[in-house]
Amino acid sequence: MDTGFWIALAILLGLVVFGVGLVGLDCRLARQEFGVYFGFRALWLFCKLWHGVRPPNRDPLPRTGPAILISNHTSPADPIFLQCATRRIVTFLMAREYHDIWFLRPIFELAKPILVNRTGQDTAAVRATLRALGRGAVIGVFPEGGIHLDADSLGPAKPGTALLALLTKVPVIPARVERPVHTNRLIEGIMRPARARVYFGPAVDLGQYYGTEPDEQVLEEVTGILMESIRNAGRAPDPQRSNTNSAGRSTS
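^ thats the sequence. predicted structure below, dont judge the formating
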């Protein structure tokens, strides 16, 4: 056998190891298009080797069917960190100006993001989100709307995530991203080693709000519960906070 055969065999074995042996994402990604499959593998290696992403617990996302993944927002790289810590492909709501950066668009397009205008209500994005959930997708949302640079707190949240959760009644899974330095600069957020950690919490129970009119008070209460679930993701629950939240609305 000539040298070319052994080189080809070595490349083939390398691809098998790269595509199967090293990766913790759901094996169903193997049925995706070839470019998407290996794109996610490369992204996974980048997160693990460059940013040191180490999720301490297995994500509680359902193996199939729709779900909403909510998280704090510490940098433009958060969608990458969250994707690398989950088994499912996550379709994130993304500001249109990020997607328009030409050399990053191929990375963003791996999960077909839903583009959102920052100028105000975006009915097209809402419809696209509902269609994606109807197809069984996992939708990634940052309730704060923008990047919050204070590492010790969460920023004010918008009510849209609460409304989406109440309308669709799909599982809502909280996550919390920790990194030593928060940044709102895109290239710095992606390329500066972050030593990021991703923590997950259990699905948020919103059953007591299903069937109620999503008025301003209800949306405010549900938004508070969602943000508290992000704050507590990966942490021991605070009984005092839990009692305060559960007292917001009677289950009767």
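The two ends are 77 Å apart (CA to CA).
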